[in-house]
């Protein structure tokens, strides 16, 4: 019998295909078997014109807010397609939500000015409130996103321009992958965003599977994701203390480890 703490445990991984690696490998290291059912697929926004215009005129803004590593990737890819460098002017300050977003930004050659203490929009809002009065802010994000950041910054006296950098869609193969994964048994499902929750619910509906899944522990990366789970009738078994992948893996350990 394996001495690894998650030996024999099968854990649903719902991240996009290009993001499953770190979470799946961390789970394997602890003895778990990742069941990869990507429920998010990154696609271009309905219209690229606002994003293109913003990328060509970054010097018009005082702050650039990047909400995720996917946002950074979308900006970098689109700049490359346009044949222009993703060059952030020295006058432009950059704020990111989370260390992973900051790391992606730095990898793309973007110097980061501000990373909030916690990895949620409310923390970024708090960090920026006293810095943005009278400033022009570019907020790049997914097509469907909460309005916490733009509303709060506008209330703080900033002029906020929101552009869609990408949209999250449900992959065509997700329902079938979900059927196959659940048929073999799953002990827990991990969620890294509210979108991963709502898209998994959509995949379950398409596969004619009752949601939430019976006797499957929901593991959430943070309070906003947990709130979305609860709104769909699934009380999280555990929530990450730190809203990142190591924190999520630690939450899986607390929910499924030897003591449980």
Descriptive account of the structure:
It is built from ten helices and ten strands. Strand 4, helix 3 (69-82) and strand 5 form a beta-alpha-beta unit. It has a five-stranded parallel beta sheet, with helices on both faces. The longest helix is centred in the N-terminal third of the chain and has 14 residues, at 69-82. The model has no long low-confidence stretch (mean pLDDT 89). It has 260 residues and is of the alpha/beta class. It folds into two domains: 10-40 and 170-256, 3-Layer(aba) Sandwich (Rossmann fold); 45-167, Rossmann fold. Helix 3 runs parallel beside helix 4, helix 7 packs across helix 8 and helix 8 (194-206) packs parallel to helix 9.
